[in-house]
Amino acid sequence: MWGRQTCACCVLALGAALGVGAPVAVAQDVGVQFRGDALDPDPGESRKHREQVVDFLAGLIREAATDCIEHDQTLSVTVSGLRLSGREPLHDNPEQTRRASATDWPRMDVEWTLKNAHGHVVASESETLTDREYLERHAIRGSARPLPAEHHMVREWVSRSVCSP
Question: Where does the signal peptide begin and end (predicted)?
Fold first, then answer.
């Protein structure tokens, strides 16, 4: 019949099925931070616009990295310098078209560290990302997305460096 030992076995079996008592796996995490004045200000650019750009790029880095790092890895990214492509018109809308020239390519200084579930460093780098050919990309010229040159540069960097360290 149902004694204490049987109930204890049921509880242990149920706990094992639910993962109770099993080692806790570290969930995938991508942390992105921008140092205080990472974004070079353009004349006429508002604080609100800079915040929108930083939020957009942080989300883009998280999205790109989440697609390729393992479920138990963590990625920490610090952006210490950022220069957007082109020149910003005098508007607060980050989706406004930027005036581009061959000397206004995007640039981003990043430090990143990828760790495994045990906290051991898998890869770590300090890099300066640039895309001097951003004007030659048809997809960027005709893009309706915000900051298309920076979007391309970040995706390329994550694919090249973070996804295959």
Answer: 1-27
